[in-house]
Amino acid sequence: PHDDLGKSWKSYLTFFWKPLLQYAIFPAQFAYLYSYFPTGSMGSLPKELNEKWKAEHYRTSEKEFERVAIEGQSTGGPSFFKTAEVEEKKEAEKATA
Predict the structure, then answer these.
(1) What is the pTM of this model?
(2) Tens of pLDDT along 3-47?
(3) Which of 61, 41, 64 lies closest to 53 in space, CA to CA?
(4) Nearest of 35, 36, 58, 54 to residue 46 by alpha carbon
(5) Backbone angles phi, psi at 4, to 5 degrees
């Protein structure tokens, strides 16, 4: 049942990369990300952010439900990036007005 799998240059590259990734890259990445972990008490901030998010989500979802009830649901649409681009233009126009 032995075949020639695992004898290509990719398998050797993987073999030599593993210790570097396991003992250097991943711990450094984890330490960097963990450095942003909040320390100490955050007080009522999480609760305030949760309430703000729920209120905003409820408002925008109701707006979309009303729009779909009037216009109908469409499965096709612009990409995420095109939508973000249009929203940025709207915000820039509001800021300059």
Answers:
(1) 0.39
(2) 777 788 888 898 899 999 999 999 999 999 888 887 788 889 999
(3) 61
(4) 54
(5) -90, 10
